[in-house]
Amino acid sequence: MRLPRALGGWGVAITGLAGDARASQPLNYLVSHGLQNDVTLPLTKALIAVSLTVVLIIGLLIVAAILRRPGLQPVAGARLEVGPEGGGLSWIWIGVGLSSLVLLASIAWTVAVLGQTVHPPSKPKTRIEVTAHQWWWEVRYVDENPALDFATADEIHIPAGEPVAFKLIGGDVIHSFWVPLLGGKTDLIPGLTNESWLQADTPGTYRGQCAEYCGAQHAHMAFLVVAQSPQDFRRWRDSQLQSPAAPQGEAAQGAQLFTMHCGSCHSVRGTDAGGVLGPDLSHLMQRQSLAAATLPNDPAHLSQWVSDPQAIKPGAYMQKPELTAAELAAIRAYLGTLR
Ligand SMILES: [Cu+2]
Questions:
Q1: Where residue 85 falls among pLDDT bands split at 50, 70, 90?
Q2: How far is the CA of 189 from the centre of ligand 1 (A)?
Q3: Where are the beta strands (DSSP E) in the chain?
Q4: Ligand 1 geometric centre to CA of 39 (Å)
Q5: Domains, the chain, ranges and CATH?
């Protein structure tokens, strides 16, 4: 079991922000870096406090009951009655009354929070469709002008300081979209489309995680939300609309091999590779991580993934390719041109 521990370390390496709460506690939902969490966090904390108080009170009452009746022996056939003597009945009224009040208050608060978080405070200008697959995230940016649509995977760029609308499309099995530091945990259910929104306070990289068990590689179904200043976000968006430059030399040979062996599952903008069973690779080199934030995106890990994905994510829907080392090297050279 050396792999999972190593992966935890990579998680921090991937976000590249060690020392920052966003990286050192990437799944901490008790701190907020986003507008939606600002609203839900007080409720979350209050409900945790209520639950702990209930556990404490019940625990103390059980201990008290045990201590007060040291000699109590069950008598065969006897019924333990709660009589009016000693105030037994009124304690039940007090207990039921108090817990009903607390429950009613938490229902009212929950409904109020749901009302406040169902819509963002202003109309989102950025709309993103996320489809969950075993075990990666398909991400499509949709615009009123279809010429400005593009796809990416496992890394979602958003402008910081403004709301972004998400359409969460159910794919194969139930998954759940969750960015603990920003909020918005919402399930993706096959055959249904859910809606959500997120707003990051400041630029930074926030880790997301599938939060509904979805099969063998559920734990390796993470993603990154990269919040950027609106100018940087626009620059990134424009770069995604470009087709990668025509490859030269070994990479050109790799491009041919790629279309033949990989293009049935992967797309690269402006080429014959148009598959949709795997992540869009048009600008692979711009992404920080590989295979749903499982590996950092550097040449060594990329080679490792492409030559034997099953060694890293057993069961993933990409098989070990039957290619020679030279062919793999050419494909690797081509992938390196996808900026
Ligand atoms: Cu999942």
A1: low
A2: 10
A3: 126-133, 136-142, 150-153, 155-159, 164-169, 175-179, 183-188, 193-198, 204-210, 222-228, 289-290, 295-296
A4: 26
A5: 18-57+107-241 (2.60.40.420), 250-335 (2.60.40.420)
Residue 290: beta bridge partners? 295
- And the tokens for 5? 């521990």
Nearest to 150 by CA among 242, 12, 219, 50: 242
- For residue 135, report the distance from its CA to the centre of ligand 1, in Å: 6
Rounded CA-CA distance 241/142 in Å is: 12
Q: Residue 228 C-alpha to ligand 1 middle, in angstroms?
A: 26
Q: How many CB atoms lie within 10 A of CB 281?
A: 25
Is 328:306 a contact under the CB 8 Å cutoff? yes
Rounded to two decimals, the pTM is 0.87
Residue pointed to by tokens 């599938």: 210
pLDDT in tens, 259-295: 999 999 999 999 999 999 999 999 999 999 999 999 9
- Tell how far the Cα of 6 is from the centroid of ligand 1, in angstroms: 21
Burial-class residue 192 by CB neighbours within 10 Å (0-12, 13-18, 19+): exposed
Q: How far is the CA of 12 from the centre of ligand 1 (A)?
A: 21
How many angstroms separate the CA atoms of 337 and 187, rounded?
Answer: 36
